Amino acid sequence: MPNNLEAFIVRLPSELHAKIKNTAKVDRRSMNNEIVGRLEDSFAARRSVPADAKLNAILFEHISTLENQIECLQQELAACR
């Protein structure tokens, strides 16, 4: 076991405690390992936010272009009537 472990007491709502306990049991791991794994996953997910922001910017640009095209087509259609 690593020497650099810190003990940490946390208070959980009963329902959350039960979810963690059941999931850990199904996955055949300790509650501690379940909690640590989920915490590590949450930090890893946050690292991908800049990539998500870049993708969002590209998507918003495409949406804006499409909205402009729709507006032009609606004007052309109105002119034909």
From TrEMBL:
This is Arc-like DNA binding domain-containing protein. It comes from Pseudomonas fluorescens. One of its GO terms (molecular function) is DNA binding. GO terms for biological process: regulation of DNA-templated transcription. InterPro entries: Arc_DNA-bd_dom (IPR005569), Arc_rbn_hlx_hlx (IPR013321), Ribbon_hlx_hlx (IPR010985). Residues 7-44 form the Arc-like DNA binding domain. It comes from the Bacteria. Pfam families: Arc. The lineage of its organism: Bacteria, Pseudomonadati, Pseudomonadota, Gammaproteobacteria, Pseudomonadales.
